[in-house]
Inverse folding.
């Protein structure tokens, strides 16, 4: 199984290719250079992986949000364009889940409170727990909200690890409301395409792939609309 995954939903820009579980990745803090970086990253990683073209890929995956509105639009547009041209199916993956999966990959933490700074004094928030197959699964719906109004998981035994940019932007507020839950937290964690590719395997197993025409980003804020390319 060959998976090409991309993520442009935060200040990071990343591309990964996973071939039968072996992953290669490009990762760079891009700020506003996602459009400039993403396609060259894909091309160089295809060459490095020994693949002749996108047609050697089996499945596409991308960070569907939440995150930066502009970044999500870029990622959605790029993956939709590739899918339309190649006929490949796509696995849309939550960027909050990707943050949680990255914490599990790097630190073996099995419960993660993933939080991205949503600006306007709000946070994109998700609570994840690893399953028997090694995939992070949401224990409740992802939300956007004020730091003092976020839903917390039922388990309050200090077994949760906080990760994502909101843990830096709202460090005091989040550490206070989560003091009964947290073992530690890291506000520098960003989503990686490697983890999006890994979570795509779960989507494949569950039959949750979509076609190019049915790709949709997730903003969590209802006032933002996305018009799909037809």
């Amino acid at each position: 199984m060959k998976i090409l995954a991309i993520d442009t939903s935060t200040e990071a820009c990343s591309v990964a290719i996973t071939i039968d579980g072996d992953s290669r990745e490009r990762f760079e803090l891009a700020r506003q250079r996602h459009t400039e970086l993403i396609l060259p990253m894909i091309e160089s990683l295809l060459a490095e992986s020994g693949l002749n073209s996108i047609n050697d890929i089996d499945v596409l995956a991308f960070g569907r949000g939440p995150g930066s509105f502009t970044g999500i639009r870029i990622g959605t547009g790029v993956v939709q364009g590739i899918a339309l041209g190649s006929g490949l199916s796509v696995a849309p993956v939550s960027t909050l889940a990707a943050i949680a999966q990255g914490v599990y990959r790097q630190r073996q933490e099995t419960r993660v409170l993933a939080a991205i700074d949503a600006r306007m004094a709000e946070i994109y928030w998700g609570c994840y727990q690893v399953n028997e197959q090694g995939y992070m699964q949401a224990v409740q719906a992802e939300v956007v909200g004020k730091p003092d109004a976020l839903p917390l998981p039922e388990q309050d035994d200090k077994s949760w690890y906080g990760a994502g940019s909101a843990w830096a932007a709202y460090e005091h507020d989040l550490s206070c409301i989560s003091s009964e839950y947290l073992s530690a937290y890291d506000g520098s964690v960003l989503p990686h395409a490697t983890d999006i590719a890994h979570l795509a395997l779960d989507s494949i197993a569950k039959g949750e792939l979509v076609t190019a025409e049915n790709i949709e980003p997730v903003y969590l804020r209802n006032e933002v609309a996305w018009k799909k390319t037809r």
